[in-house]
Amino acid sequence: MYLYLRKNEYHCGGKWCSEEERKEAKYPKELAEFEKEIEEVNFPSKCVYNDYQVGYWRKANAIHNWFVENCADGVDDCREVYVSREQVKELLDLCNKVLADHSLAESELPTTKGFFFGSQEYDEWYFEDIEYTKHIMEKVLSFLCEERYDYSLIYCASW
Fold first, then answer.
1. Quick check: helix, strand or coil at residue 8?
2. What is the spatial distance between Cα 18 and Cα 70, in angstroms, rounded to a whole number?
3. Which of 10, 39, 80, 151 could join 17 via S-S bond, C-beta 3.0 to 4.6 A?
């Protein structure tokens, strides 16, 4: 289970480019036909993404379940899903709530069963996962709250 900060960059020598520099970024020769059509409806851009891993979980099924239900419309198919700043805040709030009152774990951040999902107990491992998630969400939220709109947050899992 992985959480990435994805930096969106326009390909101009590997750096964030001004609008003028973006207009100068050219498609490879074999894609020239596409470039011409795009120029007719939009400025030409070659957006690239650099992913930076900021979170990693193993068998934290309650956290995976939360991402699936809240960010992937309940579809668990190992695809990348976008996580909004509001969703980061929501997960952080839930972690704080469960850590303050362990009796809320089952109702607020329930475990789930599935392929390679580990224990479904609300034990020390569960609460360590919640504590780790809280730590990661605090750091991510702090980073994203600094008007960094060239970054997005992506969650994905591979089973």
1. strand
2. 35
3. 10
12 closest CA partner among 50, 36, 47, 43: 47
- Closest by CA position to 155, among listed 57, 9, 62, 89: 57
> What is the pLDDT averaged over residues 118-138?
95
Helix (H, G, I), strand (E, B) or coil at 140: helix
The answer on pLDDT for 19 being more than 60 is no
Inter-residue contact 109 to 62 (CB < 8 Å): yes
Do the strands 2-10 and 151-156 form a parallel or antiparallel pair, or are they unpaired? antiparallel
User: Could you give the dihedral angle defined by the CA atoms of residues 63, 3, 89 and 117, in that order, rounded to the nearest 10 degrees?
Assistant: 0
| Cα–Cα dist 51/6, whole Å | 4
Q: For residues 9 and 49, is the Cβ–Cβ distance under 8 A?
A: yes
Please tell me the pTM assigned to this model. Answer: 0.78
